[in-house]
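Q: Give me a backbone?
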Amino acid sequence: MAVQTLPTETPVRSSAKSQRNLGRRFSPSRGILRSVFRAKQSLRILCYHGVIADELAGASWVPAYFVTQSQFREQMQIVRSFAETVRLDQCFGAGAHGQSGKPKIAVTFDDVPACAFAYARPVLNELGISATFYVSTGLVTSRRMPAAEIVQLLRTYPKMQKDASSPALDEICKQPNAHKSLGIETLQRILSRVDGQVLTRAPQEAVHALKPLSWLQLRTLVDEGHEVGGHTVDHAILSRQTRSTRTSQVAKCFEDIRRHLNIEPAGFAYPNGGPGDFDDADASAIAQAGFRYAVTTEAGFCSKATSKFSLPRVCIGMGHTRMRFMLELSGLLDKRRRKQQGWI
């Protein structure tokens, strides 16, 4: 597969005029969007990243693929009105046999920053929704932020970048997706120059929100009925690594979760999860490690014919108004999204 550096985890933007036109055509007051969704008789998987306090919505360091707690609560209420919610390992884990033919929605989180524990978890538990959290185990242990969040902070507060300037660091800060093209060891070496500065000089509200969950917090999620799955050790985009690194990033991730949480994780989420970010050999390595399914970031519905190691998901972010979120659930935006991401 050809390697691309498309920002597939960032929600696709659509114009306000386009949303209004679709909204007039598919009025939610008539339940048309819900009917469109239910007619699919399939599973819809939602992908979230961070959920922040409402008052931080305008902060410059907040990624576009985060949502506010109020936004998340409204979306989860809509989800419950559309269909039954399901935990993915109930569909694809041990003893499960894929889709039952009834419409369902699953809620998932990638990277799982601490703000998701603080602001998404209470909403999920209040509404009785069991979600899946895909974690990069090396980041959980080190509490080091994913590269995307470090780069976001460096670009937002360029003084930190200048004080540790190097040609390689300057390049990945200049181009938002440049870090995605690097091998994980190279990327870690470049960013290690600024780790200390990010932790001490970035706004503490950003540091506390963006740092990964701890193993204790993940244990709490498991005890509360949520699923914890893998996302490699270091959030390594698999196609950018050597084959041996790809295999070890997957296998060690599985073993880390089993050792720390005393569970055998069922699910795996491909980092970035877009076209060119993984291949069939990676899917085989995931299965061999012990995972039972894997999710991508290709928009679409899961049916009985969908490969359980390339399940589609739709990414949700700050730009999702109430109307756009319902359009997203219905699947009416999928073709546009896949085209913008490079799937078609």
Observations:
- The chain has a mean pLDDT of 90.
- Residues 144-211 form one domain.
